[in-house]
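Practice problem: predict the structure.
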Amino acid sequence: HEGFTNWPSNVSFGWNAMDIGPNRDLVGDLADAIRKTTPHIHFGLYHSLFEWFNPLYLGDKEKEFQRNHFVTTKTMPELVELVENYQPDIIWSDGSTGPDWYWNSTIFLAWLFNDSPVKDTVVVNDRWGDGISCKHGSFYTCSDRYNPEVVQPHKWENCMTLDKHSWGYRRNAQVSD
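Answer:
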């Protein structure tokens, strides 16, 4: 959720893998490698809707999401770039910090499933804004460690951290965590 893009995004303001770090289009490299060497594996991409410290996001949040400068200038252009440039089979969106109407999720998803270059093949999860999880999406992610324990009528996944307390590395994590 830091806003660093692993592709040369036109809206990342130099905070991307082409401009700093590896100086490569990592998403493009990965897409090419998967498609050339393992065509039976579907290529998917993770995208975080929000960025913890982006001033545009923080400004929108401060205004209780009654404006969406961050979404219109950063999030949606990035998602369109990803789809048009890399044509993923799966988009795993991560963002439930703000209502779906703030994220323009329905507008993006309508374009994705009706007019995008992957409209006939793409699938998405259900993290497109507050109140969407376990209700909408090609498959449900619901919540961390979700396990309904009975057969579900809709496809779902168990999205689980290895550490009960964090999605990131914790130096002091115990085996029991």
